[in-house]
Design a protein that fits this description.
The complex is a heterodimer of chains A (373) and B (221).
Chain A (H helix, E strand, L loop, with lengths): L2 H7 L5 H34 L8 E5 L10 E2 L1 H7 L4 E12 L8 E6 L12 E3 L9 E5 H7 L6 E4 L2 E9 L10 E4 H7 L5 E2 L1 E6 L5 H11 L4 E5 H44 L1 H9 L4 H37 L12 H27 L3 H6 L2
Parallel strand pairs in A: 4-9, 6-8
Antiparallel strand pairs in A: 1-11, 1-12, 2-10, 3-4, 3-11, 5-8, 6-9, 7-8
Helix pairs in contact in A: 1-9, 2-7, 2-9, 2-10, 7-9, 7-10, 9-10
Chain B lengths: L4 E12 L4 E12 L3 E5 L6 H8 L7 E6 L2 E2 L7 H7 E4 L11 H6 L9 H14 L15 H13 L5 E5 L7 H18 L2 E5 L3 H4 L4 E6 L2 E2 L1
Parallel strand pairs in B: 3-8, 3-9, 6-7, 7-8
Antiparallel strand pairs in B: 1-2, 1-4, 4-5, 9-10
Helix pairs in contact in B: 4-5, 5-6
The chains are: A alpha+beta (373), B alpha/beta (221).
The complex binds adenosine-5'-triphosphate and magnesium ion (MG).
Adenosine-5'-triphosphate sits at the interface of chains B and A.
Chain lengths: 373, 221
Amino acid sequence: MSYFSLILKNPFRNKTRTSLAIIGIAIGIATIVALGLITGGLKASTETTLKEGGAEITVLQNNSGQFMNGRIDKDRVSEIKEIDGVKDTAGIVRAQVEVPGVDFPFPITGIEVEKLILANVDQVNGTRFSNGSDNEIIIGKTASQTLNKGIGDTVVLFGKDFKITGIFETGSFIQDAGAYMSLDTLQNLTSREGEVSMIYVKINEDANITQVSQSIEDAYPNELTTTTAMAQASRINTGLSAIDTATWAISLLAIIIGGIGVINTMIMSVYERTREIGVLKAVGWKGRRILGMILGEAIVLTLIAGIVGSIMGIIAVEVLLSISPTTSFIEPVFSLDIFIRAFGIAFLVGIIGGLYPAYRASKLAPTEALRYE
Amino acid sequence: MNNENIIEIKNLKKSYDHGKIKALNGIDLNIRKGEFVSIMGPSGSGKSTLLNMIGALDKADEGYIKVAGIDLIKTGDLSEFRSKEIGFVFQLHNLIPNLTVLENVQIPMYEGSYSNKEMDERAKELLKSVGLLEKIDQKPTKLSGGERQRVAIARALVNKPSIILADEPTGSLDSKTGDVILGILRDLHKKENVTLVMVTHESYVAEMAERKIKVRDGKIA
Ligand SMILES: Nc1ncnc2c1ncn2[C@@H]1O[C@H](COP(=O)(O)OP(=O)(O)OP(=O)(O)O)[C@@H](O)[C@H]1O
Ligand SMILES: [Mg+2]
């Protein structure tokens, strides 16, 4: 039998104690993996909102108290297009409706079909709706999963049948959970003829986002305000970096708690095997080999915890996302980084926790150890 | 038999508990290569301590001790010495419970440069010689006391040591099983010409040796 298999065998001598230690460390690892998967998903999503072709500026009603659902005169859409540096504009109407079988308000946006690109909707499977059509709709990929409907299926909105002509994917979890239809139709259905909720503004390539934003606000003081995709993304990024910091803090905590758990487990194990370690010394084992054995056992323990914890983390995220409707559109991102971090931490915990017990074992006086009852 | 001393001890002293207990109080002893020596003496007289000194399990406080050409007081790391020159047989077998009989015998071989195949062959050869070839895959807990002690002897021999140190090897066995163990040790000494130093409480066991030594109050009596 090789030295390596000997090391693999030893941690399983006291199955209860080993399992408890593994579970303790695995919970820490699972938390790190779960947070990593979710932040990764959110990051990927905000990155796609900065896609090329999309609008850089969003015009909102000032002081409406309704962030995404203001009442802006639809004439402003064509007026703003004339402002210096503006390439194109799109007025949109937003609504949220109850859909049977879906337990959260379903977000619908009305837009002219040729302006979909400004909303980052550039990839559509099937066909788009036609302007003015009162029975055609395209829905996002996530929405298609939650509604369990595909191209050609019918969905009932505002008491009317809508035929799903296409399914789009933008990569933004918020957009992909919603739907788009003709602007006129949604205006009619929500009795908002002549007004829009907000305006998307696409600027010329050589124009400056800040300058154009300022021009728009100056043209309609007290009436309109602007926000940029970048500003939104940076707000989300601030939130994400807070989660990142929390993840590191939890990692550190996991290292400390896990390390103490490993120290405890390995000291108990060394203590119980005092006599045996005396025998190993008596037959000529060097201190280094004994140190390596105990340290190796600690690392075996924590690497198993790394595997168990990673699986637990993945399951936890999948379960959480599937039972909670408000998060169901987050797609966890399985990046290698997360698992490298998880196993790095597991390994570190093994070294930190195993070093002291291993050192103690290697320094045991053989005669004392052999006298030990 | 040659006259070369494999063990040379002069005025060896060892005390415990900050000098309160004088376990060895000036031992003078020479043992020749291939000799079979028995050590007797009352409980607490220092027999195990003496054996531990010869096997380099502990360091003496004073005196001189040279075993197989190595000065045990001056040499720092003695693990290689223990691995190559010494085979210990304790009163209790001290086998590792989660390992099989074969794996237990291989334990001393990790410090040597053996291949897995060599480790298997060597350990099997020794287990065969102590009559346990059919039990190599058993755990020690499944064995009788005598069988365990036979495994311990195989383990002591696996690195071909020049000296076997046996501390009451039959002390925890009934006399019939004990006799089997003694037979194995005596055969070993005769056939392989290893030096055998054995501590015992039984005078009939001591009688088997070529030389009988008595220890009293940490001295050779
Ligand atoms: N590690 C130790 N710490 C303290 N005292 C010790 C230690 N080892 C031995 N002693 C003491 O040294 C003395 C000699 O002990 P030793 O074990 O050599 O006796 P022994 O002759 O082998 O006795 P027994 O026949 O009972 O095995 C005893 O008084 C013992 O208590
Ligand atoms: Mg003794």
